[in-house]
Amino acid sequence: MNEHTNHQIITQDGKPAFAVIPWDEYQRLLRNQIDTDDSDFGFPTMLLSQTSGGIR
């Protein structure tokens, strides 16, 4: 991203707590995020058998 944008960091107790970003950038971030749910996630059976069976 080469263009200058106006970001603002709001602190709370001396630590970053919130980021304020331009609306257009926020909308772009929402469009580009990857939607996943639990059905998209899994473990290979071999990995599960090795970890639950106890590789020693």
Short characterization:
With 56 residues, this protein is α+β, with helices and mostly antiparallel strands. It is built from 2 helices and 2 strands, in the order ββαα. A hairpin with a 2-residue loop joins strand 1 (8-12) and strand 2.
Secondary structure elements and pairings:
Elements: E1 8-12, E2 15-20, H1 23-32, H2 45-53
Antiparallel strand pairs: 1-2
What would you note in describing this structure?
With 56 residues, the protein is α+β, with helices and mostly antiparallel strands. The protein has a domain at 1-33. It is built from two helices and two strands. The chain has helices at 23-32, 45-53, and strands at 8-12, 15-20. The protein has a two-stranded antiparallel ribbon with strand order 1-2. The radius of gyration is 21 Å and the shape is elongated. The model has no long low-confidence stretch (mean pLDDT 75).
Strand segment count: 2
H/E element sequence: EEHH
Q: How much of the polypeptide forms β-strand, as a percent range? A: 15-25%
The major sheet is characterized as:
2 strands, antiparallel
Instruction: Give me the secondary-structure category.
Output: alpha+beta
For the largest beta sheet, what order do the strands appear in spatially?
A: 1-2
Mean pLDDT: 75
The count of helical stretches stands at 2
Radius of gyration: 21 Å
Features:
56 residues; alpha+beta; two-stranded antiparallel sheet; 2 strands; 34% helix; 20% strand; elongated
